[in-house]
Design brief:
Layout: H1 2-18, H2 22-49, H3 56-72, H4 80-92, H5 96-125, H6 134-145, H7 147-157, H8 164-171, H9 177-204, H10 211-227, H11 236-247, H12 252-280, H13 283-292
Length: 293
Amino acid sequence: MVLENFVQSAEEYIGVLRHVPIHYLLLAIGTYYLSVFLFALRWKYVLKGTGVEVPLAELFKANLAGLFMNNITPMSRGGGELLRMAWISKLQGVPMRISAVTVVYERILESIPVMVMVTLGFLYFTTSEALALIPLVIGLALVWFKWEKFIELTLRLFRVNLSEEERERIVALRKCGDVNLIGIGTSSLVWVLDVLRLKLITLAIGLNVSFPVLILVSIINLMLGIAAFTPGGVGVVESGLIGALTYLGFPPALAVSTVLLERFISYVLGSISGLLVLFTSGGREVWRALKSR
């Protein structure tokens, strides 16, 4: 009986996926790689704010390789950030201490639209749970307004030694209006693209889901990726998303199909692209350097 139910469910999922319009799928894939490009653009301007110039194409490849590393290491961005730092340090001659701090600064800029997105998602469905975000907002504000002290603490924790000139360039990042504007803008666009990708995927399987619901699903996907202990969140992300979509009213077959398509794009294609970059663009040298650290 269990086997019959499993076979019947599998046939139902395959039936849904078999009729997915290819143009929706291609557009969804396009939003994913456009997001990777925006990540590279953001990093380029943050690096430029410290006086370092790196070709955009090189940063794009570093981000793809980092995605592959994220997908084979536990926790969200478990190893991808280290690989990105090593990539531009090994192949572009950027000091590791500079690449490390710029990656940290990227995450600070990224947290601003994420906090807005999480707040909107919570407030649409409930207000009491949104109060839990207050400490996070306060913490983010303290980092922003006490940036110099935060940098000193970060450098001490990671045992990074900077020259006086390098320290001044990094501290001055917060005052670089164009860097912050582009960083927050590109980060916001990435989250818009994530929601758009979910919209395209749900349209592909015949569902017209409201954007507030998709924002909440995107937030859940982010949180599952951060909390997951398996490489790339495999198993944890899929089961969590399927459960969340079912709870939100998705028919079980369509919930599974949505998650399978999303993970095919973000996990399977992302991993393949990153692996190809590692093998064709000097990534093997970076990989060896990273393993030896």
